[in-house]
Amino acid sequence: IYITSKQKKQSLVFLLLALISWASHASANPADLETGRDIFYKHCKACHGDKGDGKTFASNVLNPPPKNFTAKKSKKELTEERMIQSVTKGRKGTAMMPWESRLTTEEIRAVVHYIRKKLMEVDNKRFSFSLLHLFSQFVFDGGDFGFQPARLAFP
What is d(CA 79, CA 43) in angstroms, rounded to the nearest whole number? Predict the structure, then answer.
């Protein structure tokens, strides 16, 4: 099997993206969770509730109500990227305000990590999977580096 330089470059890009993804998730340490928890209880609990289920007085007066992080639908829909964007920039048409002027990027990541790990009880592997999916579409689409098992098995 001959591997072209284009294939080598594509493989290197994939490995680099995978390493970056892994490193960003592996770097989350207990201190980050503690920071995230403190931020959640200081700034988020009033609307999203102690357990992240949105069962607060605010849910009765806000339309739409605050996000219930514990709902199956939220666990499916809310990617880490979307949550970071929502905390950073706010959500138009909701009471979710932007926090970029009050929290650092690291604090925003910490609170999102806390919500995902402790309240939503999801891991952050979805991001790694989405990178793999995007990369596989890039690499395997169009025939440049088509995955052709028959060719590999029967040259």
Answer: 21
102 φ/ψ sector (left φ>0, alpha ψ -120 to 50, else beta): alpha
Torsion over CA: 113, 117, 118, 121 (sign): positive
39/34 Cα distance (integer angstroms): 9
Whether omega for the bond prior to residue 64 falls within 30 degrees of 0, making it cis, is yes
Q: For residues 43 and 101, what is the distance between their CA atoms, to the nearest angstrom?
A: 13
Whole-angstrom Cα distance, residue 148 to residue 155? Answer: 10
Could you read off the pLDDT of 43-97 as tens digits, one per residue? 999 999 999 999 999 899 999 999 999 999 999 999 999 999 999 999 999 999 9
Spatial separation of the C-alpha atoms in residues 67 and 94, rounded to whole Å: 10
Name the amino acid, one letter, at 105.
T
